[in-house]
Amino acid sequence: MAKHAGRASRRAVLGGIAGTLGLAAVRPLRAAPSGQPVRVGSTLALTGPLAQTSLIHKAVGEIYVSLLNKKDGLLGRPVEWILLDDQSKPDVARSLYEKLITVDKVDLVIGPYATGNILAAMGVAQRYQKMLIQHTFGLPHLAKYEMQFPASPIGPEPNKSAPIPIFDLLAATKTPPKTVAVVASKFPSTHFISQGARAEAEKRKIKEVLYLEYEFGTRDWGAIAARIKDAKPDFVYFGALGVESVQALDAMKKLDYTPPRHYHLFTAPGPLMLAAEGNNALAYTYFEEHPPFTARPGAAEMIPLYRDKAKQLGIPYPYFDFQAAASATAWQMLEASIKGTKSLDDKNMAAWLKANEVDALIGKLRFDGPNNHGPDQSKVRQVIDKKWVVVWPTEYAPPGVKAILP
Amino acid sequence: MALIRGPHAAPAIAALAALALFFVPAAHLPAFYESFFYILCYWIALATSWNILSGYAHYLSFGHGAFFGAGVYASATLTTKFSVPFLWSIPAAAAVAALLAAAIGAVVFRLNRLRGDLFALLTLAVAFVLSTIVLNTPIDGGPGVYLSAVPLPDIAGSPTATIYVLGLGLAVISIGTAYAVAHSRLGLGLFAIHDDEDVAEAKGVPTFRYKMIAFAISAGIAGAVGAVHAMYVSYVTVGETFGITVPVYVVLMSVLGGMRHWLGPAVGAALIGASLFAFTGGASATIGRAVVAFGLIAVILLLPEGVVPTLLRRARGWLKKRAKPAAMPQVAPPAALRSRSPVSQAGAPLLACFGVEKSFGGLRALRGVSLEVKRGEILGLVGPNGSGKTTLINVISGQYRRDAGRIALDGHDIGRTSAHRIAALGIARTYQIPRPFAHLTALENVILAGTFGGQADRAAIRAEAQHWLEFAGLGARAETLPGELNLHEGKFLELARALAAHPSLLMLDEVLAGLTPSEIASAVALIRRIRDAGASILFVEHNMRAVLELSDQLVVLNYGQVIAAGAPREVVRDPEVITAYLGAAHA
Amino acid sequence: MPSLNLLGQALVSGVLIGGLYGLLGLGLTLSWGLLHLINIAYFGLAFLSAYLTYHLGTVYHLEPWFSGLIIVPVFFALGVGLHWALARFRVSGLVSLLVTFGFIVVIEAVIQLAWTADFRKLELPYEVPSLRLGRLYVPTLELIAWVLASVFAVFAWAALRWTYFGKAVRAAAEDPAIAASFGINHRANALLIAGICAASAALAGIFIALTTTLAPSQMFAWFGVVFAVVIIGGLGNPLGALIAGVLIGVAESMTMAITAPAWAPLVAFSLLIALMIWQPRWL
Fold it and tell me: Given this model, what pLDDT does residue A67 score?
């Protein structure tokens, strides 16, 4: 697979089917794009509780659009991104997508951030038959609109597929865990995958010594930490979001306890990476900032620009992980489908995406499965020496790096 | 201009505007406008419904989100799990929310101490409890409920237009309800509860029932809004539904628009709702929020009573300046007081207390008080401070429940009757320190007493109220707010308010205290005229001269016991009475 | 059945988080009860203080306690200024809720502009080990926060109850006109109270920075529980807020130890409803 990625980038330079971004090199000089701009509309949660992550999507989108405009834009026309703030509210997201489509009359739309808002936008896109490429939808079985396309390779049934890599990794160690504690946030997408993790553990005859569900927005982690410590699991699966599991770890450290192995589902990468107790933490990913991922189309160009932009914006962890990669991939898919069809027609572009493979930052993506999902490409990453690196499947690990599991 | 001046101008304009808005879909505007107007309607309906209890009666609910959420999940459950047609789920959601409110109200409104702040807390707590239940049971359970498969009937041409028409319908219903309530007995009662709930009850307002009705209406509308909104967002989650947005925003919107006006919350909701969309541009989102916040602060500082009341007052002031002074309305000829209790045998007592006891903790305020007020009699009740006079009035009027003994009006036991029923039976009282309804004008104060004193015809109530104000010498102060009256005017307003209820028994609690000699003289004359008009009077007073002058019978209380009763001149010579008043040395 | 040790640990955790509830509620309860201002700006001030602590600690490597020596007095002054402005415009009651909500939104925007919406975590350069109490662990920073919250609450409570200043403030809260006629300068007293409120919010913020990961919108997450704490503790009663905070904290924590943590709010708030309906004497 690693070799594949390398070849892929070479092919992209030669003008392969898709993802024609990673080509800082050999393109003949062209005139700047001209004519009426192609207008792409989207919302992001620029304010409110989802703003942390939207920040990443905003930065990536702006970089991508400026890169497009430095080259020949889309179909030779400049690209304009109309970005609105949905305030982290699905009802506002719905209204704003209606605004983008019916008032601003944008040519194309791209998805907002986070499951609830994407679902709201999807309804609008469906009514107006606009193709919707989205980067972060966590409940694929609800994405029934035939012209929605996911940029994140979580597969059609992430509840079944996403827990497999981490349990495979654990099974491959010398001391596979005999007991597990599953600690699940009642947030829809994480809760959904946590249920799958429980089933996977059961299938592998790992005894579940503790299962906890907590409310999204829990403030006091002391009791939960004490229960985990009390249960003495070999492995803790945090079906958590943002910094929840970081706070749980912190609370456990105050009880002089750190679980021997712990996995974090959709964690904010920065705080966990830098916290002392986050050392050797395992987490979900499908892209990290090292080879073979960095050899993929667009990576070489995007990552340094993103670092600069993040520093300039004052983002504390200027780090290009799977969230940023998914965001860039959504734009690559949009670009590829336009180039592939030489049109801005939503139906043509959607048909093209269904029929073709897109070689993007996240990998080779297909959209021919249920609800336009391709196969799951989930991986496991670990904090090693204060950096996130992929450790499973092993062929995606940086050379010489192995998972550290006590 | 003429339109604005007419009494029904505002509702007429509002109705016309609403009618016009129903045709927005026909204008084939881009769907965004329907969606945008829907959001405004959504906030208008929520804020207006909140205001019906919390604004009018000042029972602040921080749990409006609970009723909204109950509606959201009622509709989501019915449509997805039981395949109930969406339109039918709207009244069902309203019913669920209203029942929830009724259940809460049935507990908290019975407890007088759960007023105000504690009611706010309780509603807040109920919201937490409800959201936890929804989150942890199959109602939601965590993953959220997706309504995309629920068919939306086509009412207005497109799904967005249909949602818009439903939202507008709810906004119109809630504003219409708010208007109707504000202009009804219910509204008058709620406004009275807002200012002084005990007095409202004593003036005949069935406070418990009114609060229940207002709470159920308020919650029911919120529930219906929840049902429509569930369809609008089409994916409902506990986090979004029970977040702090709804309970906080309805308060802010109502305060901004003005809580004492039926249209205030709607205006506040439209302003804040629109401002949410003012700065959605990606580049300015954060700064935009700050700008909107500054705008809000500026508006409320400039118009502290809320946009609608302040602007209306200014407009009225401006119109008044331009208009010629209107002729004073004709005052109806003085009406005689009619006793409303059934006529019984002549000579039988109107009010009979026997062995009445009342304790507060360890303090026995009344220790077996017995007395009788005969028809057409003025009974003077005197005693040193703390002897139990005011307590006795509070017990007779039903504000406190007696611990033991019997109280009968016209032979019927009223010892366990609630205060507003006792008021309706014909007992009226005044307060030692005037307790007018502070936000109602002098005239409205009297109208309220008349309205809940058994009269039905509004015009007659108004004319009579004006009459009683004139009777009490306050004719020129009809439009004045009580805060601007002096003590003597305040006391006379108490009198006018008591008289407007056509009492058969009037209980006056130290009406003369604090008045100048000439004011006392006019008050004494007034009391005589009241008795001559047909009422019996129980008269608590310290001013012995006035007592001797007025009373037919004198009763002396000391330490909660009757120590003397009989003809005034004889009673004051009783040595025990002298001891009680002047101390043992003088006996 | 959970072990005794687990229950003990949950109790510790609940008591400690209750201290933070009480400290965050102190400003709200004093201003609501004594100044008739439903001043929710203190939530915003607490988070502003938390971000400043983070900034001073991360950029200038200042010790949190040293940052506190700067931040707390500055916020005292800020609180005085804020109250002066509110008094100047005669803001009170629900209008104050609207105005201070506006302040919070502005503070949130300022925080987001200055520190972005991304998570911020103050990492201390040294470990702060927990104290051992038999088999129980007591987290040190939380314990310090709790002790300070208690000291603050007890002092405020005692000052209100027994000093001339406290009596004057309470008298003015009951009836400003009569208090004024006895020569009480409520304006000056109110400024002092407002300063204390803001200082307590600043203190709460320092511990929020020390014990949690910051994000601008998190200030709204504390609303519900702190409102509940403030009302059940009795408006204007700092000690009541602390006791109510501990009560709710323990109820939540024990629920988390015994059953599914997601049920915690149900137990805590049902308890609260039951308490209010039966109303024991101390309430």
Answer: 94
